[in-house]
Write a structure and sequence with these properties.
Keywords: Amino-acid biosynthesis, NAD, Oxidoreductase, Serine biosynthesis. This is D-3-phosphoglycerate dehydrogenase. Belongs to the D-isomer specific 2-hydroxyacid dehydrogenase family. It comes from Halocatena salina. By secondary structure, the protein is an alpha/beta fold. It contains 17 helices and 22 strands. It has a 7-stranded parallel sheet with strand order 8-7-6-9-10-11-12, with helices on both faces. It has a 6-stranded mixed sheet with strand order 14-13-15-16-17-18. Strands 2-1-3-4-5 form a 5-stranded parallel sheet. Helix 14 packs across helix 15. It is elongated, with a radius of gyration of 30 Å. The chain starts with a strand and ends with a strand. The structure holds nicotinamide-adenine-dinucleotide (NAD) and 3-phosphoglyceric acid (3PG). The site of nicotinamide-adenine-dinucleotide has 31 residues, from helix 5 and helix 7.
Length: about 525
């Protein structure tokens, strides 16, 4: 299986993929046509900010399971198109945060003390000591626009430098900001109060052009630093503001179009410091993001949960061990429920009871849906299962309950339509030991694996013996069975674990007996 890598990543990531048995093909600086050809047979694609992952590229990638972004920003990836194709998009949101924060602080000093300009002059033989009178960061106010991972790391570092911190981020709480020693305020207030403003938002339709001429005017006499994304700051307005003396200086690591072209208005402006998108370019950061991305490729291709999936539900790393055992279990419960229901579904209800109800369960619900659709849609995965449900007009309902009967946790998938419903419940016994413990209200105890026969019958003497004889006559061994019944002589449901698949005529023979209401064979072999 091939993984295509289109922007340079650290060898540690490439090695990890090779060790996991992948063929790794690199295609740095390939044109669109070459990329479309190279991606055709790739199961994984790894990019940084240098590759545009377009709808056309995804269309050409027929085998693709995952796009791994070895870094944070995903503005170069068409996530909607990936979701439509059932392709996971995952980034590495932690690995380069400290590198980006350090580069930001370095850029603040670079512009406030004119370090690159002084360096250039000295290199050309000029001892221009009298021409550079810098600005001290100590006792100045730093305005942080976007107080996420990088913004917070910058806040910590700049707090230690003696700066006052004021931040604009409509999506975080005042408590979080206060814990970092920052005061939350509106953007205009931040710009008016700050001596230096540093930008740390993603590039989205909302943030594009967020800092433009009117905003720069409010920062009069200050400095602007952008190590987040080009496009958040209007480059023409910024160049003009520095040239006209509205701002003292600016430092930029990122640009609306990269690589930056020679005719950029920012080049050659005296007090504008530029670096070629180096924020994440440290050895440690590159190793971190490359290995984390490789791990996610391996997980995705092995149909295991991908921790940092952006278009599929994911779960916090610390909670993952508690949630993981229920992911496969919910998939199996959804699969069994769908096969037994065998009718149009109007509503899928996933109920969580006991300990699991206290966890983030979106990924578990997506897996239940994946299980439901796996017979119908071979391309289904946790990425596109929720949209498949929507397309099919199935309402997905989640609910939580404290009590889980006598289990620690219970996950129940119930499928409804106007005519009826079926529910399948599963739990984990100690030691990651999955069990289906209730089908359609009958208490059972089935290991969800291999060949399963579910028989509904009248509770009469000899029925179980009859089923055993029919199976035995066909040479099929019963590995285990569990019989649940409503009342003596009422209806019963029996689950048989079989060593082999029964033939269709065996099922017909069972159903031709008046005592048997229904017999259904389920293959759970590939899970
Ligand atoms: N220069 C580099 O090499 C480099 C390295 C790492 C990250 N980055 C970039 O830095 C940026 C921040 O990364 P991060 O990991 O901190 O992301 P993050 O998602 O953790 O944080 C982004 C923050 O921006 C906030 N935000 C979103 N919209 C906003 C708006 N309209 N106004 C104000 N705040 C808004 C969010 O609430 C969030 O708190 C991203 O653009 C990322 O691509 C660049
Ligand atoms: O978003 C990021 O992670 C940074 O901008 C780094 O981008 P890069 O991997 O292209 O250097």
């Amino acid at each position: 299986m091939k993984v295509l890598v289109t922007d340079p990543i650290a060898d540690a990531g490439l090695d990890r993929l090779r060790e996991a048995g992948f063929d790794v093909e690199t295609a740095y600086e390939a044109d669109d046509e070459a990329l479309q050809t190279a991606v055709q047979d790739a199961v994984g694609l790894i990019v940084r900010s240098g590759t545009e992952v377009t709808a056309e590229l995804l269309e050409a990638a027929q085998e693709l399971v995952i796009v791994g972004r070895a870094g944070i920003g995903v503005d170069n990836i068409d996530i909607d198109a990936a979701t439509e194709h059932g392709v996971i998009v995952a980034n590495a949101p932690e690995g380069n945060v400290r590198a980006a924060a350090e580069h930001t602080v370095a850029m603040m000093f670079a512009t406030a003390r004119s370090i690159p300009q002084a360096h250039t002059r000295l290199n050309t033989g000029e001892w221009a000591k009298g021409e550079f009178l810098g600005t001290e960061l100590n006792n100045k106010t730093l305005g942080i626009v976007g107080l996420g991972r990088v913004g917070q790391e910058v806040a910590r570092r700049c707090g230690s430098l003696g700066m006052e911190l004021v931040a604009y981020d409509p999506y975080i709480g005042a408590d979080r900001a206060n814990a970092l020693g920052a005061e939350l305020a509106e953007l205009d207030t931040v710009l008016e109060r700050a001596d230096i403003v540093t930008v740390h938002t993603p590039l989205t339709p909302e943030t594009e052009g967020l800092i433009s001429e009117p905003e720069l005017a409010k920062l009069e006499g200050g400095y602007l630093v952008n190590c987040a994304r080009g496009g958040v700051v209007d480059e023409h307005a910024l160049a003009a503001a520095v040239e006209d003396g509205v701002l003292n200086g600016a430092a930029l690591d990122v640009f609306a179009d990269e690589p930056l072209s020679d005719d950029s208005p920012l080049l050659g402006v005296d007090n504008v410091v530029v670096t070629p998108h180096l924020g994440a370019s440290t050895e440690a950061a590159q190793e971190n993001v490359a290995t984390s991305t490789a791990d996610q490729i391996v997980a995705a291709v092995n149909d295991e949960p991908v921790m940092n999936a952006l278009n599929a539900p994911s779960v916090d790393a610390s909670a993952f061990p508690r949630v993981e055992p229920y992911i496969g279990l919910a998939e199996t419960a959804g699969r069994i429920a769908m096969e037994l229901f065998d009718a149009h579904v109007e509503e899928a209800h996933v109920e969580y009871a006991g300990d699991i109800a206290t966890e983030e369960i979106d990924i578990v619900t997506a897996s239940a849906l994946k299980g439901m659709f796996r017979q119908l849609e071979p391309q289904v995965n946790a990425v596109n299962a929720p949209s498949l449900a929507e397309q099919r007009g199935i309402d997905v309902v989640e609910s939580k309950a404290k009590q889980a009967e006598d289990f620690q946790s219970l996950v129940t998938v119930t499928l409804h339509n106007g005519d009826g419903e079926i529910s399948v419940s599963g739990t984990q016994f100690v030691g990651e030991n999955p069990r289906i413990v209730r089908i359609d209200g009958y208490r059972v105890d089935a290991i969800p694996h291999g060949h399963m026969l579910v028989a509904r019958n009248y509770d009469e003497p000899g029925v179980i013996g009859f089923i055993g004889t029919v199976l035995g006559d066909s040479g099929i061994n019963i590995a285990g069975m569990y019989n649940g019944r409503e009342t003596i002589g009422g209806e019963a449901l029996t689950v048989y674990s079989l060593d082999d698949e029964p033939a269709t005529d065996l099922i017909d023979t069972l159903e031709s007996d008046d005592r048997i209401i229904q017999a259904q064979y389920l293959s759970l072999n590939d899970r």
